[in-house]
Specification:
205 residues; alpha+beta; 3-stranded antiparallel beta sheet; 12 strands; elongated
Length: 205
């Protein structure tokens, strides 16, 4: 056998041995290395910013609450005497705080203060209209009209705030809890009214 034939046979044998043993060995080593190499942790969490908004039909502004609504709503019924002159003056002050003309403030024949805002009225704490009663905790002013033997309650639920001296009540024509006649307001909208009049109002009770 010639020398070059022997060399070719040896080379072929080496290639065959590498294919049979070398490649599987390299693959095994790679798997071992991968299994013992810690993977870099991946994070899939994302932060979503939620922006609160006010009802478009109530306010064109976006309002951010600095504290929860229920910390400002009254929990104690207060009856404080006041004069008609004090009542009119307070109604005028609320009108000014909310951007209305105080000269338009009036007290009607039922003892309710108006100043041109359809959502807000003013009562004397010692003389609320007869159809309302205090209800809940925190408190609402609620009127009930029961029909169908009491099965249907045509209620009106009003959110209210006391003045700082508790002589007067600033009453919203509705609340964040639905009622039959009362408006359904967002908490942000109610807070906006509070902060417009904050210097005149008590902070809860």
């Amino acid at each position: 056998m010639k020398k070059k034939d022997i060399t070719a046979i040896v080379i072929a044998a080496c290639i065959g041995a590498f294919v049979l043993f070398g490649i599987p060995f390299i693959a095994w080593v790679a798997l071992v290395v991968k299994a013992n190499t810690p993977e870099t942790p991946t994070t899939t969490e994302t932060t979503v910013k939620v922006t609160p908004t006010v009802n478009n039909d109530k306010s064109p502004k976006t309002y951010y609450c600095n504290e929860p609504l229920w910390s400002l709503l009254p929990t104690e019924v207060r009856y404080e005497e006041s004069t008609e002159e004090e009542f009119l003056k307070f109604t005028q002050d609320i009108a000014t705080a909310m951007g209305f003309d105080p000269d338009n403030a009036t007290i009607d024949q039922w003892g309710v203060g108006h100043f041109g805002c359809p959502d807000v009225q003013v009562f004397r704490s010692c003389d609320i209209p007869w159809e309302y009663e205090y209800e809940g905790n925190p408190l609402f002013l609620v009127s009930h009209e029961y029909l169908d033997g009491g099965e249907l309650d045509k209620d009106t639920r009003c959110t209210f705030f006391y003045s700082k001296d508790f002589k007067f009540i600033v009453v919203l024509n509705g609340s964040y809890v639905r009622s039959y006649w009362g408006e359904l307001y967002t908490e942000d909208y109610i807070m906006e009214i509070y902060y417009q009049c904050e210097n005149l109002l008590a902070k809860g009770s």
